[in-house]
Amino acid sequence: MKMQPVNNHGQRTILFKSHLSAKNTIPSKIQACLPKNDLKGQSVAVIGLGKSGVAAVKLALARGASVVAVDQNENLDPLEKDPLFSKHNNVKTILGHFDERLLRDADRVVVSPGVPLETNGLSSLLQSGKGVMSELDFAAEVLPSCTKILAVTGTNGKSTVATFAGQMLNHLDFKTFVGGNLGVPLSEAALQCLTSTPQSPMFKASTVAVVEVSSYQLEIPPKHFFPSVAVILNLTPDHLERHNTMENYALTKCRILSHMSGRKMGVLPLGNQHLNDAMRSFANDLNLAWIGAFPGVRINLEAKVASFKIPCVERVSELQLGAMKTIGMHNYHNAAVAALSVIGLDTAIDAEAISSTIGKLEVPPHRMQIGELKLDIDRCHLGHAIEFTLMTCSFGKEFLSVPQD
User: Fold this and answer.
1) Is the pLDDT of residue 330 over 70?
2) Which residues contact 199 (CB under 8 A, 6 or more apart)?
């Protein structure tokens, strides 16, 4: 990988932006990477029937597969009772205990992010070479090769950074999907891409998919998820009941960089030893940028200015953040990182263009509200939430509620 020297001084419908910049050329026809019905005659087992799992079932059916949909929750309604699946006679739902031979007999096994690999013999299947893949990778296999993927992960802040990046692109007239771990599963976007017509393609040559990625979605090493820009915002102790150690947690996060090379850009926080150690497992020839140093972004929160230097580009550019209407100093940081990731897509967007979007940025719903001090305990660990809130709040007549991602 290209290690640049670091200078330490200083059921929902997916909405796409339909207006395109005049500088972007569009071929007459954009197709999915795979033809419709490419899985005809094959069986796919989908494990976990949350939002991502159900989206994967729909995508598998659209690709022509017969589907066994499995979930340990016996209180769920079988998919056969869902009107969305009523026209399909090649889907079977199994709730509660099931014979693991079903997975061994399937041609593919698609795992939802909420399902640990230690369950259902999945880890053994994966090690045996069986076609076990994440919902994220199953969806990415279908996306057109022309689609640029901006992937964002990290312990905290990923939903906000992904949202800001998507809004910047939308305001600059780029056709944009925002989802993944946040909101709409990537399988829903892949499904609409697969079923769209040449006359009205869902993904065009200038389309960017901004994908929030959790560590759970990276437990199975990806084979088809190829970001153009991948951002690891930070890494602090979290999800250790699943990853066991910080070393494993860091290694899992770094899998987001595993298929990046050439002009593709990986963004890391400066000075995180766990991530630095994990990066040694990846020998890809990608450009690295840093949050807090050059090449990358330096953020002066007091002056509300972000300075950028893209790898292999000598020019340093600045972005004024003072026009932001969102509350909280941490959102200046989030906007600066989002801007770096958008510039890194190599779509001729620069800091000057992004400056026109800064005053229009809005945080995701529920991320912050004015009122009495209140933490969303269900969405974050109490200790982390208190520390994060104390760092970012201005204590006066009003207090801020700042749940973590």
Assistant:
1) yes
2) none
